[in-house]
Amino acid sequence: xxxKTAVILLSGGLDSATCLAMARDQGFRTxxxxxxxxxxxxxxxxxxxxxxxxLGADRHQIVDIDLRAFGGxxxxxxxxxxxxxxxxxxxxxxxxxxVPARNTIFLSFALALAEVEDAADxxxxxxxxxxxGYPDCRPEFVAAFEAMANLATKASAxxxxxxxxxxxxxxxxxxxIIRTGxxxxxxxxxxxxxxxxxxxxxxxxxxxxxxLRKKGFADAGVPDPTRYA
Amino acid sequence: xxxKTAVILLSGGLDSATCLAMARDQGFRTxxxxxxxxxxxxxxxxxxxxxxxxLGADRHQIVDIDLRAFGGxxxxxxxxxxxxxxxxxxxxxxxxxxVPARNTIFLSFALALAEVEDAADxxxxxxxxxxxGYPDCRPEFVAAFEAMANLATKASAxxxxxxxxxxxxxxxxxxxIIRTGxxxxxxxxxxxxxxxxxxxxxxxxxxxxxxLRKKGFADAGVPDPTRYA
Lengths: 229, 229
Description:
The structure is a homodimer. Chain A is α/β, with parallel strands linked by helices. In chain A, 37% of the residues lie in helices and 11% in strands. Chain A has one domain: Rossmann fold, CATH 3.40.50.620. In chain A, strands 3-2-1-4-5 form a 5-stranded parallel sheet, sandwiched between helices. In chain A, helix 7 (174-183) packs across helix 8. The longest helix of chain A is centred in the middle third of the chain and has 15 residues, at 102-116. Chain A is globular.
């Protein structure tokens, strides 16, 4: 029997690495896709390459897109990444690190790749529990994208192939994600979550993403393999 | 009173030029956006620049994206553009010139730009009457994209700004589109619709798009300003 193919959005972070491992575990042939989008933290692309290789992705593709043309985020423009925000603040509002329409754009490219590769499944590691308050990480967004995608392509709208957007981390805590990935052999030392890492790939330890990650390892009772600056 | 801002997807073709003129006529400040997406017919980008200038767009931006990485279309890959297809065939099925998920990707970038520019309106010149059978040109696709977009961004999902995708050509014939544009001062001699033009910008006269365009001018009783090879 031929394996079904899935497209996996891979950032080099902890969540998408876990997602890739889950898709592999479910028996999919895995096509990982990452984006060079003008992010400050380009070391995450190096991490995505390490992760794709270590987890045995069948292919890994990096696509260039220029979101900097639009500015508007601390992740792509010359705005400082906030550090050491108190936990209460992490849970309120959309932070300055929000990149306009990022997941919509990433999923759109994944949709194109899925159609060309005869894939009916896309995996995205978004999470609505221990997350950073981004609107495009919520279940209602994922459901609406899936509905749109099923009307958008020849594969779905004409040939009747149902496309599914999998967001298997949606309702897991960061600790649950880490436990799941460890069972599937994910080496989190290869991943990087920091919004403001050093050029050598060390994490700052103080941005929102580092804080969530640290807490995840602590809650899971797992040693944190992250290299902090 | 400050003008409301709209983002206009501008291809350099007849339809999107008309769309831009309609948005201007409705009083919007117009931000036109075009894409260099590995299309064979790069002369369309030159046309988009002429059109944006002639119609007085407040800004025009060309964004680089690489859809060639995915292959899969006669518009981006090394596949011949079909010529002189009989009219009955034009109306059946999705042609080889279909680019996977193209309008989804274009609208996603427009959505990012809209959010950054505080725009609540996006114009796209898709058409379900005299069209080429692309699934992402249908009203149900546009409605689904709009629903998704309203859940995707901080502007809509958090700040409550309703985003509208305008597709004012959806139910017009090509002849109606031409009549509408002429009333609004569109110089169709600046536009190019051909899928396979010469490097000098002459149209082939035989691809699906040229055939639809020729018929539109004939039906409208308007002289066709197109330079054919």
